[in-house]
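re: that chain from earlier
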Amino acid sequence: MTELLGRPLAKGETVHHKNNIKWVLVVNINPGGIAGGSAAQYFIGDFDTCNFSQWNMQGLQASFKVVHRPKIQGRCAAALTVGPWARNGVPNTQAPSDGAALWLPPAHYGTVGQTVWQHFSVRFATGFRATPGEWNWFAIWHNDNGFQKFVGNTLKWEFANLCWTARKVHGITRVAMRIMGGPSTTPRIVWVTGPRLRTRHWYDFRVRTTWSPNSRTGFVQWWLDGRRIYSGRTPTLYTRPDGTLSTVYFVLNNYRMHANWDATIFFDGVRLGPTQLSVHY
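^ sequence. v structure.
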C-alpha cells in the first residue's frame, strides 16, 4: 500500500512550498520484509519532486539548486554550494563559517531505543576543496537544543551526535565519521577515518544506528560504497545534567569554516527506515 500523507506545518517549521503542507510518501511492502513480513518505507528526501518541498531549508537561496545531472537515482539530485558570500548561512557560535542546510523535523526514529537505517548518496564536485581540520560537515544527526539552558553553568557546549565530514589533516582530505554521546559534560568521542576523498564520485552511504546514551546499547554501523567501515557499540545520545536525554534529527549540509572559494556538494537518494530493506535503492 502506498500513501501520500500531508500535514500542516508545525509552529516554527518552514518549507519552501506554496501550500504550506509537508508531504511524506509512505510505502508498505508486503511481502518483502526482513522476516518475510511487511516493511514501512519513508521517502523523506530523495529529490524526485525535483524541488526542495521534501525538506526544510536554511541558508541563502543562491546555495540551493536542483539538478538533473549528475544524479544517482530517480529524476533529480540536489546541489548545495557555499562560498564567502554564504557566511553565517548556518550560524556557528564557535567561529566564522559558510553554510547551507536541508533538514528534517524531529521524529520518533531519533529518540532513545530506536534503530534507524539510512541510505544516501554524496558527490563532491570538481574543484571541491575542504578547509583545514574537521569542520567540513555534509551529513549530520543533530542534537536538539535542550542543552542550551545548561551552557555557562555545568556545560560548555554540546555537539552533534553523529556526523560525516571531509576531514583535512596535514593537507590530506578523507571522508570521516564522528560519534559523540554519554554524559554531555564528559562525552565519549569516536572518530572513524574513511578513504581519501575523491571528487566526481558518487559515494554510497548506508548506516544503521541505535540511539542510546549507554555504551552497551548505543550502536553504529557504517558502510561506504558497500564496504563496512565501522561497527561498534558506543553512546549515540547525551545524558544531560538534569538526567534528560537528547534527541536527534537528520540534516544534509555544506557547512565549513569561512573560506574565500566556492565549493559544491551533490546529494541524492536520501532514505530513512526501520530496516535495511526499507532504504534500498
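The first strand starts at residue 2 and ends at 8.
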